[in-house]
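User: Show me a protein chain along with its predicted structure.
Assistant: Here is one chain, sequence first, then structure tokens.
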Amino acid sequence: MKNRPSEFTVQHWLFTEAMGKFDLDLGESGIQCRRLNGLRPEQALALDYAPDRGQTPLREVLAGLYQVDPAQILITHGAQEGLFLFYCTTLGPGDHVVTTLPGWQQSWEIPRWLGAEVSFIRLRRDRGCSLDLAELRRNIRKNTKLLVFNFPNNPTGCDLSEEEWREVAALANTHGLRVINDEEYLCDYSSSLVQRVPGSAAVSGLSKVYGFPGLRLGWLIADIAALGTATNMKRYTTICNSSLCEHLGRKVLERRATFLEAYRAMTRAGLAILKAWLPAHPVLGLLEPQGTPFGYLTVPPSVDSAALAKRLLHEHRTLVMPGEVFGDVHALRLTFGRPPALLRRGLQALARVL
């Protein structure tokens, strides 16, 4: 077991190096954030402790969307807490985990901190960053316990096909593996991993697609036994979620069709702006986004993407995410889920640096 996790590179870049130094945010991984005044919270709401698993009406709404038992749902402080609780209640010394790279640092740091070994499947650009199933099979060991996925993927924007998910399900069934997927960018919950792979788990939340990261509201869906253990771990950390945030979260989900329509409209318009801008800058390549509000831009090996992102930040007060914070190089993650005027200003700043 590691003494402590390594520094979280994404959060260090955002909150230590960049915070307070940018006016244009093309770095955050979700759609442009929304405001409270559209939700109209009930003024008479009692701000008591919420139940540790989450308020029943909220869990029932989610159960209907995912077509699962409400007892399989734990409301968490964002999707990241859901992942953390699942790792803590699933993994220990001697276990082995397979995850993808580039990816979300938590998916390897926390398993290592818990004493597990981690192997990486590289999402290669020459394959469109699709999952190499043959390599995945080669990395399965006798002590492999968990496959950790994030599809649609952050930062590459790639996703798996129906056939690829079926192969993952077959592999998990053959080897008795647990599988968890971070589904923050999934809009159709009926196609969640928990519907594809029996005994699997999934997390999501209101941050990326809905535009409410400040509510810090997420959920973990897993089998009832795993949820019981995760709930007990939550009692040692955040105890429960904010009753106000859960109340507001239910209002969001009850209007999810409206929010999803707005999300799709903004991302369609933003991606069109980005694609129209790219031909004038052939030094950049774009991996086609598959359901994400951001694009993964590749740069030549001669270009230091971390240095490029720093120049953009310090000279033009514009934020993007360098590939280095995801365990990659020579790439930038740029969010196009923004109002057109803001996005164009950010692209103009990037053009000047290029």
